[in-house]
Amino acid sequence: YTEDLANLIDDHHLDYHMYADDTQLIEYTTASNIPNAIMKLQNCVESIHEWCRSRRLQLNPAKTELIWFGSKASLKKTVHLDLNLYIGADVIKPVGVVRDLGVFLDAELNMDQHVKTVVRSCFFHLRRLKSVRRILGREVTLGLVSAFVTTRLDYCNSVLAALPQASIDPLQRVQNAAARLVAGIGTRDHITPVLRSLHWLPIRLRIQYKLCVLMHQVHIGRSPAYLADMMTATADLPGRERLRSANSFRYETPKLKLKFGERAFSYAGPKAWNSLPSNLQELMNTDTFKKQLKTHLFKLAYE
Asked: pTM for this one?
């Protein structure tokens, strides 16, 4: 079924992602060409509806969401356009935020809703742990903080790449609060020594760590194809055969027209990777790479 559905979507010239029973259709367009994009999406969804019906499957329009992503300036151009999707008698209206595999994506991709949700969830668990901190002790508290808080801070944190510091600060406050809970210190005590003793990287460097690990997977050929296809090794560029860069492990960062583009993995990934020393880039064993990467970033943070 999956292959048949993928072929059907390909016939409509749309990009897509499939996760279990969730299929996402993706179309890139300019504000002036939105009516054509809507037509393509409507035709594809109607074809999928017929495909499901012929196999006694049900496509539920009530659970179908539509969102338009773009910069603030681009979205302003769509104010007077009909952005709805019409599927038979059903009307699918665009929403401001969607949840994708636990990540909340807003129309301008500023990730405010995602950060707020993570912060709210983390502080909820920290308040619960604080009430039993004296009973649990340091080691048990550390394990529970890692399970209920740190995992949430790290989950899909690569989508936060290149965000302004003001957007990252709430997450850093969560980490600081978690460190204070584990160490049993007050809010006025200096937090940097505690973070260092716990061997916790600051949030900004945790994001860079995730980007570098993903790029390492690309480099050794173990990443998904959709990530590998974004990357171009500097050594593979035509005309570089005789240059010193032909022997490097660097990747090209695409030229950007807007600073907004720095948020894309195709730019943020190579940028983070290229900042690493060559002795890290040449490592092929993933476990060794992670250990030495952590050591490298730890020195940047605290030395």
From this structure: 0.91
Distance CA 15, CA 265 (A): 17
Residue 110, pLDDT score: 93
pLDDT at 215 over 70: yes
Q: Among residues 94, 81, 5, 89, which one has the least CA distance to residue 44?
A: 5
Torsion of CA 99, 104, 108, 112, to 10 degrees: 160
DSSP state of 236: G
Return the closest-CA partner of residue 266 out of 232, 225, 219. 232
Band (pLDDT 50/70/90 cuts) for residue 246 is low
Q: Measured between alpha carbons, how far is 170 from 110 in angstroms, rounded to an integer?
A: 14
The C-alpha atoms of residue 179 and residue 183 are separated, in whole angstroms, by: 6
What DSSP element (H or E) covers 201? none
pLDDT of residue 257: 86
Contact 94, 82 (CB under 8 A): no
